[in-house]
């Protein structure tokens, strides 16, 4: 009876201790993230965002019910992520919804239609049954609401252009969950947005061509377009001090960032002066400029195309800001394939995809946040950039550069699609890592010191800027989205001929975030996730060893444990008998 009482006391004591520890540690959050890149740890910016929530953020996740195993894993990871968010903020509330539960086919169609209109995309799933192939739909998305505002979030992130297998896409989506959900909450709770404007008036890309860029930026900032017609009020907040004489003062700049997307007409000196003073007052500019005239549309219509320098009257301004855009064209062995007619078959034209060396594919190698972990960026007729003025005190960072196998073509020149039919001479591709996108930061000096005829005194001339930054890209088409046959814009970075999505949109968003000082968003988007894949050769070579080890080791451990217990038992009873 005494032994039984002792055992019961020990049992209930352990139960009470377990319950007590669970109650105590439920008030504390503690987890050790053993991964090198801390993939299971929320970034500091996300934790701050969650802690600063003033009202309830309600998340409806439409990923529940009878799901395929990979989507079930995505659902579980979503729940775990939201639970972790709740640790930092009790304002996070959520529910998981099975949209097909208790619905007739007609009702289910209406539900899917409503979710589609709200921005969620049902994904078709095909199941093999005895009667054939059965198609059903899964909605890998969520609706997040905050203070009567609601936005959709795609949990299945398929923007990474190198992934095709659904399992890989789902794994990638789980890794990007913090950015996708955190960014949605950030957009809902952001009270004051920076203002971004596309400059117009010099033959820049039209609204249809920058539609993808504008929509992407609008997720974070107020987007506008401004026609630059030499009026000061286009860029500056102007206050009239004397209505009779027309005297005025400039109280500030209207926009935090200007985007100049592929101008084709020259800037006047007065327009350059206004841009210069915009920069001197702390404004930022993202330049997408083609230093040469080369268009694929012209090459499709004519057998040859002359390539000439483009006169924009910006060379001296760029030089003062620390860069020089060269009037050359770059060819790269690592290039985007384009369809080239190879003949006819049964009266139908046949096309073959051949790399077009004038369309380099840029693989970012820098660890700078703007390009860190960025997907390949596609370019069209890109030129090289030199950095100048080493004594200016400006800090210059190369963001994008060509591959080690690059060739320069000086202008004027003649280019033709006939070169695709000839084998390239690899000895000519002897240049390497030529910059095509450069970030310049610091205190800039005005180009117009002493230019009295430009009414410098009237607007309050600044000779030195506040600390500011600009990005120069020597390809105006990097920001241009393609247009489909129905005259609708395609997503920025998507190439309809190769059916691949490249990193142009993320490069643009990273650049805009960085120039607008939103580096928290930038760091979450560029968070490093390493795919730790098995070594296939080593698996084949050591297959037998690991199979034997996995079978024999557990059995050996059980036998060893049994032997130890037997020895302990014999030793104990031997002492008792003595």
Q: Which key terms come to mind for this protein?
A:
single chain; 578 residues; alpha+beta; Glutaredoxin; Rossmann fold; four-stranded mixed β-sheet; 26% strand; globular
Word description of this protein:
With 578 residues, the protein is an alpha+beta fold. The chain folds into two domains: 28-188, Glutaredoxin; 195-525, 3-Layer(aba) Sandwich (Rossmann fold). 32% of the residues lie in helices and 26% in strands. It has 15 helices and 27 strands. The strands form nine sheets. A seven-stranded mixed β-sheet has the order 8-7-11-12-25-24-21, with helices on both faces. β5 and β6 (149-154) form a beta hairpin. α3 packs parallel to α5 (166-175) and α12 packs antiparallel against α13. The longest helix is centred in the C-terminal third of the chain and has 35 residues, at 543-577. The protein is globular, with a radius of gyration of 31 Å. Mean pLDDT is 84; it is low at 160-164.
